[in-house]
């Protein structure tokens, strides 16, 4: 297995706890409006869809997944997360929050992606050929050909990866932002 750098190891360990800390600061500092909440849906909903769709294809650590959304981008889960994150930053109506989450996303996910690529390269012989056909993050316009055929979405995999938690989490954040918006109007 490829060695991870200290930064990659640290980011892999702290990305979830840091996400909760950022969420607390976010909700405390958010100043949503009806407009920012509506605009945020243009990023959050596609991000949730992409994460859910990708979760129904990936067999983590068991095979190199190259079908479904993985035929367009090597990291559809992270692309979906980025879309969701930017959507919620926009919902907050704060430029500094957008800057903060963008900086955190880059500092956490780039090392994570590079570390995972090292693992995939070391454990799956076809990774380099796949990486040559499919971009790391921003998707292709057409699906790259795959040795795995067309692939098929698996509800069982979606449930196994518990991707429905992202949907529930997004619902909880929108509820909190909605309550914050009501509070702002009452205490304006």
Could you please describe the fold and organization of this structure?
- This protein is mostly helical.
- The protein is 69% helix and 0% strand.
- It has helices at 6-29, 34-55, 76-92, 95-123, 127-133, 155-160, 164-187.
- α1 packs antiparallel against α4 (95-123) and α2 packs antiparallel against α7 (164-187).
- The longest helix has 29 residues, at 95-123.
- The mean pLDDT is 89.
Give a brief rundown of this model.
The chain is an all-alpha fold and 188 residues long. Helices cover 69% and strands 0% of the residues.
- Quote the beta fraction: under 5%
Low-confidence stretches: none
DSSP helix fraction: 55-70%
Number of helical runs?
7
Query: What value does the Rg take, in angstroms?
Result: 18 Å
User: Got a strand count?
Assistant: 0
The end-to-end distance, rounded to whole angstroms, is 56 Å
Category by helix and strand content? mainly alpha
Mean pLDDT across all amino acids: 89
- How many structural domains? 1
SSE pattern, N- to C-terminal: HHHHHHH
Sum up the overall morphology in one term.
Answer: globular
Largest sheet: none
Please specify the SSE layout and strand pairing.
Blueprint lengths: L5 H24 L4 H22 L20 H17 L2 H29 L3 H7 L21 H6 L3 H24 L1
Helix pairs in contact: 1-4, 2-3, 2-7, 3-4
């Amino acid at each position: 297995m490829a060695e991870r750098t200290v930064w990659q190891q640290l980011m892999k360990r702290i990305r979830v706890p840091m996400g909760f800390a950022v969420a607390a600061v976010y909700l405390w500092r958010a100043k949503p409006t009806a407009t920012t909440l509506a605009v945020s849906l243009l990023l959050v909903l596609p991000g949730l869809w992409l994460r859910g769709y990708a979760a129904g294809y990936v067999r983590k650590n068991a095979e190199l997944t190259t079908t479904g959304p993985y035929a367009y981008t090597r990291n559809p889960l992270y692309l979906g997360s980025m879309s969701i994150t930017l959507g919620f930053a926009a919902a907050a109506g704060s430029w500094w929050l957008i800057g903060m989450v963008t900086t955190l996303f880059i500092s956490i996910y780039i090392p994570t992606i590079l570390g995972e690529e090292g693992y995939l390269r070391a454990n799956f012989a076809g990774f380099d050929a796949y990486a040559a056909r499919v971009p790391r993050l921003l998707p292709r316009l057409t699906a790259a050909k795959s040795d795995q055929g067309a692939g098929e979405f698996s509800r069982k995999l979606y449930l196994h990866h518990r991707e429905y938690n992202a949907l529930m989490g997004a619902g909880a954040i929108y509820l909190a932002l909605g309550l914050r918006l009501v509070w702002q109007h009452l205490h304006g």
